[in-house]
TrEMBL record:
<keyword id="KW-0406">Ion transport</keyword>
<keyword id="KW-0813">Transport</keyword>
<protein>
    <submittedName>
        <fullName>V-type ATP synthase subunit D</fullName>
    </submittedName>
</protein>
<keyword id="KW-0175">Coiled coil</keyword>
<dbReference type="InterPro" id="IPR002699">
    <property type="entry name" value="V_ATPase_D"/>
</dbReference>
<feature type="coiled-coil region">
    <location>
        <begin position="134"/>
        <end position="161"/>
    </location>
</feature>
<dbReference type="Pfam" id="PF01813">
    <property type="entry name" value="ATP-synt_D"/>
</dbReference>
<comment type="similarity">
    <text>Belongs to the V-ATPase D subunit family.</text>
</comment>
Length: 213
């Protein structure tokens, strides 16, 4: 660590740095508050999506009990044909967002399948969509958690290290310069007194000579 220079130039440097830190800190803290709010919102959405998924499972379980009939083939009824995940900028953080999902379904004879299969396919699409949204929402939360941790470290750096250190350095330099100024004043007074004494002695040579007898 570089040794602290106790001079006016160093004082000006640390004073400018302190002003910069104090000017930048509020914007950092504001962004942290925004990220914390966005993270809390993301968790609420995740809870809603999980509730939606549970509700879908409950609906299928209670409204479509015939699914337990192993004689009816309900495999490969749908498939994900296309899925589009985009990124949106939230408080400067890129977060994934589901933009589009398309399903394909093989055609089957209405006579070969019971009437409730169509409803099951619809609920299955909703459930798959909810599951994908949950996975993406977890990714959003992970990125927000990382962003919150990073900016919290920066805020703590300013609050607990940079600003206190700059204030401490400024205080040390000012005390040193004040002491130096005081010493200089004392030296100047002593020098002035010596000059006055010498001048007084030279202006009264007879008194000086008599003082020597």
């Amino acid at each position: 660590m570089a040794r602290l220079q106790l001079n006016k130039s160093s004082l000006a440097k640390h004073t400018r740095a302190l002003k910069s830190y104090k000017r930048f800190l509020p914007s950092l803290d504001l962004k942290r508050q925004q990220l914390l709010a966005e993270r809390a919102h993301a968790y609420r959405i995740l809870d809603e999506l999980k509730s939606e998924e549970e509700a879908l499972y409950h609906f299928v379980k209670t409204q479509l009990p015939m699914l337990s009939n192993s004689d009816i083939d309900i495999s490969n009824l749908i498939a994900i044909e296309d899925i589009t995940v985009a990124e949106e900028n939230v408080v400067g953080i890129k977060l994934p967002s589901l933009k589009h999902i398309a399903f394909s379904a093989p055609s089957y004879s209405f006579l070969a399948k019971p009437h409730w299969v169509d409803n099951y396919c619809l609920q299955l699409k909703k459930t798959v969509t909810a599951t994908i949204k949950i996975a993406l929402q977890k990714q959003r939360i992970n990125r927000l958690e990382e962003a919150v941790a990073t900016i919290t470290q920066r805020v703590n750096l300013f609050e607990q290290v940079l600003i206190p250190q700059a204030e401490h350095n400024i205080k040390r330099i000012r005390i040193f310069l004040s002491d130096e100024q005081m010493v200089a004043v004392v030296r100047a007074k002593i020098a002035k007194k010596k000059v006055l004494d010498q001048t007084s002695s030279l202006s009264n040579p007879i008194d000086s000579a008599e003082g020597m007898l």
